[in-house]
Amino acid sequence: MLVISGGRLPSFNFLVILFTIVNTVGSGSSRITSTYIRSEWPSTDIPLDDEAFAIPKGHNAPQQVHITQGDYDGKAVIISWVTTDEPGSNKVLYGTSEKKYDFNSKGYLVNYTFSNYSSGYIHHCLVDGLEHDTKYYYKIGDGGSSREFWFQTPPNIDPDTPYTFGIIGDLGQTYNSLSTLEHYMQSGAQTVLFVGDLSYADRYEFNDVGIRWDSWGRFVERSAAYQPWIWIAGNHEIEYMPNMGEVVPFKSYLHRYATPYMASQSSNPLWYAVRRASAHIIVLSSYSPFVKYTPQWRWLRKELKRVDREKTPWLIVLMHAPMYSSNVVHYMEGESMRAVFESWFVNSKVDIIFAGHVHAYERSYRISNTQYNITNGDRYPIPDKSAPVYITVGDGGNQEGLAGSFVDPQPEYSSFREASYGHSTLEIKNRTHAFYHWNRNDDGKKVPTDSVVFYNQYWGEQSTEEETEEEPIKTIVSSIATF
Fold it and tell me: Which residues contact 269 (CB under 8 A, 6 or more apart)?
């Protein structure tokens, strides 16, 4: 299925074949609840001795290697890894030629205990002062146990810079998770926007909690060591377990996964922002205080004022609990955040809000419910051209399984929904258009299922003001050449 958000025909030449276009600020007449029934693999975690969790060879070899953006504009990365036998070197050697490391950066070391589990030595190293659009090679570890990887920095901040993001949520470490990860790695996307719930280690007890954090770190290394994953904490990262003497929220997550929060003037690593290519990405914490006057509320108010759509036209918000979802599971759990922030998102013309939490896929029309209050009775969302599209991608494959029950009938704000595992990609073409795909994991196969052409909220308005009036385009001979 292909639709165009905004009802305007893109004027570039990579569209071919027949599809029907549905204006996503329309009445919802094209609402779809997929009837696909998945014959899924069991939602059980992969055994620890499986090669998916292979421990690298060599004494004290670095493992669980992952990188994330390390500054506001993409000229730095934070490289993280774990050593298990002893601290070892906390330096990163790096350069622009393979096997030739002209530079080095020194990191820092943390570790922690959780119940009767003691972590390995967790290294975090900021590598900054990098050049945009450059491939860097890096080396970590000591002697014969050292390991080598590479990453590509993003292009310059520019409104017409093309860039492709992958979106994954609620991944876990099952065979379905592995299918999602492997299919994502074939997509050609350059950075993962991860919308929370990483390892699902909190479904274990005592020593096994930490062991499953370690296995997950090795599991995602195949991707996360080579391209940035932009992290969000979900409810499974809270790990409030007083029965095991653990009452500090996000303890494992915060020790293991660093974020560049200070670069966006945030006071907490659970909420922050980055700019990457032509996108401004805002990360929010669904499980930290966000009501009026709280630190997250104050920070977001300030950050939205920093957004410059002349430089980064695509404004994307990430959170864990969806503000709009028609699934029975976790129904309306994001309502409190919607009540606080929705008017800000509409006024700021946010393009897309990605969330996870619900283990299914759903995409909304552009709608808002900013007029509702307890006395006026206007409780239904309405079409709103200034509103974001809300997309739930909590379908990575974790052991809790799929959320297969949707509210019936399908609400008018819901465009497409299906309970299947998968991942998404957002392929930004320029300041005005982006291609979006959701790809179902059909029993181990990558199946493109929902596709949209998004028209940018800010630049769409600019173009409409400058051009003569046009009738909305309803059909077009078109399709997307590649998925």
Answer: 254, 258, 259, 261
Q: Give the percent of the chain with pLDDT over 90.
A: 82
Place of tokens 């959170």: 319
330 is catalytic: yes
Contacts for 53 with CB less than 8 Å, ≥ 6 apart? 46, 173, 215, 218, 219
Phi first, then psi: what are they for 365, rounded to 5°?
A: -80, 175
- Mean pLDDT score, 269-282: 98
pLDDT tens digits, one per residue of 315-324: 999 999 999 9
Q: 8 is written with which tokens?
A: 């305007």
Is residue 478 within 8 A of residue 8, CB to CB? The reply is no
Instruction: Give the residue carrying structure tokens 């239904």.
Output: 380
From 330, 359, 423, 437, the catalytic residue: 330
pLDDT digits (tens, 9 = 90+) for 63-99: 999 999 999 999 999 999 999 999 999 999 999 999 9
Work out the average pLDDT over 475-480: 28
First-to-last alpha carbon distance for the chain, in angstroms, is: 12
